[in-house]
Amino acid sequence: MINILLRTLCVLTFLLGELKGFALEQQEASVTLNIGRGQVGRSGEIQVKVTLFENYYPALHDWNVLERMASLAGDDIVFGLTLPDAKLYKVHIDFMLENRPANIFGEPIVLPIESGDAYRLIYKDDGLRAAGPGSEKINCLLKLYKKTTISLSEQIINLANRKQFMAYAFAVNDLIDSVQSEAVSLLNAFGSNISDQGRAYLLDFLKGRLESAKLSMFKSFRAKKEYPLNEQEVDALFNHLFEPYALQEPEKSVLALQHLRAHYEMEREWLRAKRYLVEGINKVNYDTLFLTIKTKYHGTVRDALLLYMMATDVSMLTDMQGKFAASYKAMEDDGFKKGISLLENRLGKLAKVLPFKFYDINGNEYTNTFFKDKLVVFDFWYTGCGACANLFRTSKPIREYFKDNEGIMFVSVNVDFQQEKWEKGLQSGLYTDNCELNLWVKEKGFTNSFLKSYGFNGYPRILVMDGDGNLVSANLPHLDTDQDVARFIALINNAN
Questions:
Q1: 278 lies in a domain?
Q2: Is 58 a domain residue?
Q3: Domain that holds residue 193
Q4: In this structure, is residue 387 part of a structural domain?
Q5: Is the dihedral of CA 467, 471, 472, 474 positive or negative?
Q6: CA–CA separation, 265 vs 275, rounded Å?
Q7: Number of structural domains in the chain
Q8: pTM, 2 dp
Q9: What is the pLDDT of residues 450-478, one digit of tens each?
Q10: Burial degree of 411 (CB within 10 A; 0-12, 13-18, 19+)
Q11: pLDDT tens-digit profile of 13-64?
């Protein structure tokens, strides 16, 4: 009997060991990156950063981070990742080539990854490709990118030339249906080589890309001044393309996990607010848009949209503190509440301004400590930005008002990738003058981590820092009227 018990115990121990090993194995994954000697040689020493996310939001890149790694580029760099469980996660691969961020068709390299994956990525001039375990979903993703980017862009241009707007609308939907059918056939061709959750990810990615294409087509047609539409025609075109639109229950969990769907839904709401306005983005009432999101949507859908809006459009909102409080109160999911709290700690009033390094024309470095005891108004711009030139022009009365106040500085910060382009912008006199301290973010341009941390995805942007290094405002002021100018002067006086 004792021998039987001992043998049984040995078998159980062996099985438990095997199961434990299996569980550990299921939580492991790896990504190998090969950039190619030619590109490394042209770009000098390249540092590659790999970040594992549960959820990835470009404007909130330190939310839901599970693991970070970095390495200098070589022939093959292997990043071993430990996943918490068997769910599908996202991995962001970030490096610079010739002062430009590596990308997939102009977008950040964010790829799905799940336990057991060990794919090898090869990044060359002709694009990205993958091989090894788990590579099927990556290669399928790349094909979907190509199908929904290049071929659609070419056809959008042709469709936007149609004079009859409803014929255009029907043609758009026919095109989308055709591309979707081809893309689903492409996905089906990979068959069982892609897991169920991998397939769900790719299908949702496809939906988002096609919705984005519709938005591009709508905007392309609206931009055709030779075919002006009245409000009724704009409504008809918009409704045919996007309405009735309601998120179905199964999509809610997907939206909660992926920033893409939140982005496209926000784009729709933005267009609903803007569709009659040709003047531009500054005419949209973002406070009304915030209220629409808060009251129209529910559950994790609302949570995702509120977080997305606060991460990307907070500079357009008035009463930023009140909007953070309202967002937190409305949210139901603890993960999204954590995200909104993280944003508030970074952007809220009297939060410390994050560390930065900017450079003058001679390469001298400027950090937070240089501006100690000064109230600083930072103006972020790029060469060729019409709105940046307009803000410089409309803010002239404010600079004049404070020109004799030695405790207040106006600092111009350029976000171009190339110094030559920055210098060209300086010489034009459209964006700044010699009275300001003129600085540059250097090689990383608008991908600079400081800019990304504050959600600066479009320009111009204004950031006000007090003498103790605290954030006073990251809101873009509207300076269209004398009252707007007076309001911004009062903001500076109150903080000084």
A1: yes
A2: yes
A3: 137-300
A4: yes
A5: positive
A6: 15
A7: 3
A8: 0.68
A9: 887 777 767 888 889 999 998 888 766 66
A10: buried
A11: 333 343 333 333 447 898 988 886 555 555 456 778 888 887 666 556 666 7
